[in-house]
Amino acid sequence: MNRHRLASELKRIFPPERLLTGNLERRMYSYDSSFLARFRNYTPDAVVLPRSTEEVAATVKLAARHGIPVIPRGAGSGETCGCLAVRGGIVVDLSSWDAIEEVDVANMQVFVRPGVVHYRLNEYLAAYGLFFPPDPGSTRMCTIGGMVANNSSGLRAVKYGTTEQYVLGLEVVLPDGQVITTGGVNCKALKNVSGLNLSKLFVGSEGILGIITRIRLRVWPRPKARGIAMAVFADLEEAPAAVLDVYRSGILPSGIEILDSSAIRAINMYNPEINLPDAEAILLFEVDGNPAGVEWEGQKIVEVVGKRAISVEWATNPGRMAELWRGRSVVAVAAARLRPDGSRIFAGEDISVPLNKVTEALRRIKELGRQYGVAVVNYGHIGDGNIHTAPVINLENPDEVERANKLADAIHRLAIELGGSTTGEHGVGAVRNQYALDEHGAAVNTMRLIKKALDPANIMNPGKLLPPEGGAGGA
Amino acid sequence: MNRHRLASELKRIFPPERLLTGNLERRMYSYDSSFLARFRNYTPDAVVLPRSTEEVAATVKLAARHGIPVIPRGAGSGETCGCLAVRGGIVVDLSSWDAIEEVDVANMQVFVRPGVVHYRLNEYLAAYGLFFPPDPGSTRMCTIGGMVANNSSGLRAVKYGTTEQYVLGLEVVLPDGQVITTGGVNCKALKNVSGLNLSKLFVGSEGILGIITRIRLRVWPRPKARGIAMAVFADLEEAPAAVLDVYRSGILPSGIEILDSSAIRAINMYNPEINLPDAEAILLFEVDGNPAGVEWEGQKIVEVVGKRAISVEWATNPGRMAELWRGRSVVAVAAARLRPDGSRIFAGEDISVPLNKVTEALRRIKELGRQYGVAVVNYGHIGDGNIHTAPVINLENPDEVERANKLADAIHRLAIELGGSTTGEHGVGAVRNQYALDEHGAAVNTMRLIKKALDPANIMNPGKLLPPEGGAGGA
């Protein structure tokens, strides 16, 4: 079906202000935050902005009739081309469908539409003394629908896990346009083991099995207290060892972040006032809970980590906590300033490795950076082995771009070699599906069987998550 | 294929001591803890006791060739006929394959074979300062494989969630005999979002999608301290309200248990020395964490719950904690002693309801008990709305048996009416699949599509979890 015919069919479903078919409008939907999107033209044939399950279902049914790809999209803050029309089709932009429909305080859960922004949800829940623990760095942009589709997490996954832990049920428009509710049609229970666990299958499925239109999330009581410990290390090896010592002392911090020497240097160049000590690594421990428990854990961290660190400082005062956290909070921006013509790119940016391989991973990523002549800054969630590498390159230089791509590939392969994964929290999309066979082996066939059973015509977000049939190539 | 031919084929795979084909031996595998199994003859055609993935795969391949059902089994402690050969076939008893293969302390995970008993695993992990938090009542019997297949939990699900939260990866023999590893073939990372989340799909799938042969579990640092608060209520309504007050004060106890008046009476009859106060409800709060934090939360619970309860007692002394917990620990046994000719049965025993429906559920279960003339004792995990009802009947009286079945059906329907589920933690098996369409509506079709994609010949544990095609009937 040509674009004009498609537009006229979509006009029967959507009012003009929620149907985008102009060239410029469509072009706005041709990129996300990924490196790959900069070099491709993934412009969709049409964009729709639904505000009801019926509109989503009608769109999917239309697409199914004509074999047109459908690509769900949240804020577009992803780094994997996950929300891009890599094979053309209709982008379903859910970001304006942002109703918080019900906060059920008595049952500790909240019902939202997919477009609700993470930050806004937690602001809203705070009035009830509740919170939704996962906290991605993109909190002020990313949507709950996108978080569910990608099983997002962030700083607090060490203690609080990832989005999947909080998903009690989903309304989903399937690839044939049928609507189902997972976790029980009218269920408001917190615990339920009846049926196959479809909720958890859809979490992290990146839109290849259907479009999530309503989300039932478990929320938790907001902790009353918080504290931050900052530890400075002369020897990189001591940092993961200190993390393990903390775990062994019976403490599960809400987050443990690492800045390696590359990150420390970038932060100090970006803002000399922050003035981080010149060291091989800095660890930041965040602890939350009740005031007495937080203080106990802070003192214990000082005692335990102090045996390996040059210095440890513990703070519960909000001003001092913000100061200790300041380096971490600017690292993503600081990386880009490593060189005046540099841009920080998202490629090989999200590997996870076993905790006992973190040191080796950081060392070898630095070596790979030198080998390919690309500056890299490393930071991340060391508490669960999730390393964010920020390559910094001149985007105008094709040779640097090529070397950056080779570096990203080498980092992904390093992750697999070390018994890790190419992605700890950002997802696969069209940039990491080429590694699926290496990571998952024969399990990829099982994933394909499920995909085919639900979407035999392959219209739901094609070219993502799974490698193409018959090979391990890209999208 | 007749039983003798089957036995001779299985002899090529198993040594004689791990292949059971005698009448008495097979009869031993015809029941679990469910009520239904008492009245059926679900004797398998053969029983095998594998000790390797190869043996399991060879068994499944043999079964697939001949279209014979395969039924995985752990300890047989389930209450749903989940491990019984409701359509004949080969029971795969995994309980003797109980190796704890690796405790990887540095990476906070453990690798086990399916037959490891829960209690033994935690005893083993204690030496490393680690633990696997879910704690079913059947801890001394149930296997980790069974826990994964049923997504088991127990007292501590309020804070620690269910088994699924800890499953990082699985080795699974699929219905065609192929072996896959979910969560990454060689992965030891704690965080991994690449690929469809097959691990979580297999958790709770009750053996209908494959046989779990190896389990990679995340484990946590063992908390250093623990405390128990016991609160006594004159008014049943106040008990769930007190639970919510505790949540609102920012506390997430590791467990919150309820004993209603029926349970209190049963416990005091069973052992007058326990001498629980004659009240409408007793709540037991368990708190764990670090010593200072536990004490803070205990005092807060006394303060908050004290506003609604007749009395609240807080203890951290192990002896006193055990005394406070004593009633709860004997309730399952005590229920059976309500009458001299009585047996406690497992039917309608595991509903979950929204927290704000717990009072109504308890009241109406009592009414239903009166209506059907069946004595019931109610206890359970009120913190997540999971109610364990224990009907007590004379098994020799066919009329009572019939009334008990009607009562169980009414309790299951009540759960759905109240926005809950027929099963909070025990599973579906062959006793609750008749409610799947009422609970899940059109999502049952999606479950069926997945089942058919992986097991087109329906040999893996047929008659369980999903209702039979074309209707909402039983197994």
UniProtKB/TrEMBL annotation, chains A, B:
PROSITE patterns: FAD_PCMH
Keyword Transcription regulation: no
Residue ranges of the TM segments: none
Molecular function terms, GO-annotated: FAD binding; oxidoreductase activity
Record key words, sorted: FAD, Flavoprotein, Oxidoreductase
Pfam families, alphabetized: FAD-oxidase_C, FAD_binding_4
Cofactors demanded by this protein: FAD
Domain FAD-binding PCMH-type per the UniProt entry, residue ranges: 40-222
Entries under InterPro entries matching the protein: FAD-bd_oxidored_4_C, FAD-bd_PCMH, FAD-bd_PCMH-like_sf, FAD-bd_PCMH_sub2, FAD-linked_Oxase-like_C, FAD-linked_OxidoTrans_Type4, Oxid_FAD_bind_N, Vanillyl_alc_oxidase_C-sub2
UniProt KW Flavoprotein keyword: yes
Family of this protein: Belongs to the FAD-binding oxidoreductase/transferase type 4 family.
Name of the protein in question: FAD/FMN-containing dehydrogenases
